[in-house]
User: Which sequence fits this backbone?
DNA sequence: GCCAACGTTGGC
DNA sequence: GCCAACGTTGGC
């Protein structure tokens, strides 16, 4: 096992595929990525078990909606082979696929999403790829420290939401650590 | 809808 | 290899 990041962030427009869709499907192929750097990340660096922040872009507000996990290794993105498909790419051939995808499994939907504004405000996340000017990568690395900082924020959010309930706090209601 | 910041394409 | 034109991303 290499020393590369085991934490990632993926972007998706919720109108096309949201955290609720992933919760419903339990897992999904992360197809349609048509950027070489993102492709390389999926092909070369992601492995089953890696932890993933699930980000809603072009949303109101944009932000991290929950957690996912890599459940399937990189394989050819079959949508590139289908001339009828929106993401068809004639360059990609079965014997030498241009585009790859991994499979993602649902872990958790946050009670309240962590908005982009909030991510910019809190400490410890200044270096996140997501927050860099002009950053548009749809699959990007996250450091272990950044990942745990975000779980910390999510955990605070989860306990805040519990204070509105009338029954006793249930300690198991915190975000589950995936390991 | 606007538009900044990229990434890709293709003529040369 | 250069770079202008074009297409896309994604916040606002």
Assistant:
């Amino acid at each position: 096992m290499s020393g590369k990041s085991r934490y990632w962030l993926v972007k998706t427009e919720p109108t096309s595929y949201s955290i609720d869709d992933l919760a419903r499907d339990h897992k999904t192929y992360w197809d349609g990525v048509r950027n070489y750097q993102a492709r390389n990340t999926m092909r070369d660096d992601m492995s089953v078990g890696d932890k993933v922040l699930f980000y809603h872009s072009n949303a109101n507000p944009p932000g991290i909606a929950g957690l996912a996990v890599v459940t399937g290794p990189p394989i050819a993105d079959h949508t590139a082979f289908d001339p009828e498909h929106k993401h068809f790419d004639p360059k990609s051939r079965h014997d030498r696929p241009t585009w790859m995808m991994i499979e993602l499994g649902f872990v958790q939907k946050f009670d309240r999403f962590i908005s982009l504004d909030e991510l910019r405000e809190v400490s410890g996340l200044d270096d996140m790829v997501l927050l860099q000017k002009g950053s548009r990568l749809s699959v990007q690395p996250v450091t272990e420290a950044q990942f745990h900082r975000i779980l910390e924020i999510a955990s605070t959010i989860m306990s805040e939401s519990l204070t509105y309930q009338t029954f006793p706090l249930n300690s198991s209601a915190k975000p589950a650590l995936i390991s």
Residues 80 and 89 of chain A are 5 Å apart (CA to CA). The radius of gyration of chain A is 17 Å.
